[in-house]
Every structure is written in structure tokens, then in C-alpha cells.
Amino acid sequence: MIKRILLVLAVLGGFAVASLWGLHLYYRGQIFNPGDDPAAVEDAVFPVETVTIRPTPDLALRGWWHAPEDGEATVLYLHGNSGNMGDYMPGVAPLVAAGYGVLVFDYRGYGGNPGRPTDEALLADAAAALDWLDRRGVRPGSVAVYGYSLGTGVAVPLAARRDVGAVVLAAPFGSIAQMGYGQYPRWFVDAVLADRFDSLAAAPNVHEPVLIVHGNRDTTVPVTLSEPLAAALPNAQRVVIDGAGHGWDLFETGGTAHILDFLAATLGR
């Protein structure tokens, strides 16, 4: 009898573990939705140099570099969770038009790059991009780190660990776990979530000026999720764009203007 009970418990335990693993994989698929194909240079819509970012000697990531006009600052652009860097040109093009230098790249696992994306892996990729800029002679104080959506979860811990000039966060969240806690029991989220992108934990160590822009009709990352992040950042201003969602309308209805004004005020013209 005891053996039967133990067998049943073992089967149930195995089922529970398998179920949690399946849910873990499901949520990874929600967090990371990379495009398999490399971005086409034609998608850049402005002149670029194709460059290689190396987080490790054996890992090469594709990127695009557009040099700044004389005297202008540089933006390191960290894109969202889907597609490849070519899909984010509507957010990048206004920066180039304003004269800023821009470095944009695909994370590992994105745009045909090798590797497996995780929160720490993407942070290492972004740090390698900063190192690339440093080798090009771009001073850290003249670099703005600009994260959009998932990229904000990379930008905040990056700025907490590295010196930069300013930080822009478009449609940010405090952490992936924070998003999950609003929908599921805490124990469940903690059990299935490995990649937390915990900006709230890193925020007190970000002392550079920070601009948050968020749409009040964002249904992907609700606007309320950026409130605690703004409160945790020592030097942040938060702008809510009325009527804007999570897509390019966030920028077309005022977000881009606020970002350019912020960059001019913090990094100079």
C-alpha cells in the first residue's frame, strides 16, 4: 500500500515539475520573440556602417553604426522583445535626423545571431556595445542609453553598472515579475519565471538623468507599471502621452519630441 502511495506521489510530482517546466518555456516565449532573419541594410533608411559587437571572443553580434554630426552626442538604442533591429527604425530615424550618433544592434538569439537570450545575457550584450563605443572614442558621458519596451529592462541595470550621460525609457516596466504578480499568485510567478529584468532593484543605483515616456493606452505594458520605477530612480522625469499605446503612436503623438528635448537638455547641442 505504501509503495502504491509513493508511486502515485512520484507520478504527481513528476507531472507538477513537467507542468512548471512547460509554463516556464511558455513564458520565455512571451518574453523573447526574436526574428530569425538578419536585418537588411536597406531597412536602415539612413547610411550605416555594419559593425560587430563581441560580448565574448566567440560571440559576434551584428549592429549598425551611424556616426554623430560634429559635436553631437550618441545614443545606444536597445530594442524590444520581437523581430530584429531593422523593425525599430521608426524610433531610431528621428535621432539620426537630429544629428545624433546611433548604435543599434541585435541581441544574441535575434536577427540570426547565435546564442540564447536571457536577462543577464542581454545585459552583457549591451555592455559590450558600450565597450565598442568606447573603443571608437565615444566618451561615456556623451552616450544616452535608450531602451524601448523589453530594452528598458536592459537599459536600467546597464546604467546602474556603467557610467553614461543619460537614460531614455520608452514604455518601461519595473520587472517582468511585477507584471506577472498582477495576474497570478506570487509563488507561481516565482516558480516559472527565470528572466526577471528587474529594473526596480537596479534603479536606486542609476544617478544619471532619466526620461520615461509612456502611453496611457498601453495595453502591453500598462502605464501604471512605470510609476514605481519612476519613484525608485533618483533623477527621473515621467511623461505620460495621452491616447498613446505601446507602438509607434507613442512617439508620433509627442514621445519623440519629449525625447529630443530631453537629450538636448542633458547632453547639450
From TrEMBL:
Residues 74-196 form the AB hydrolase-1 domain. InterPro entries: AB_hydrolase_1, AB_hydrolase_fold, Pept_S33_TAP-like_C. It comes from the Bacteria. Residues 207-248 form the Peptidase S33 tripeptidyl aminopeptidase-like C-terminal domain. Pfam families: Abhydrolase_1, Abhydrolase_4. This is Serine aminopeptidase S33 domain-containing protein.
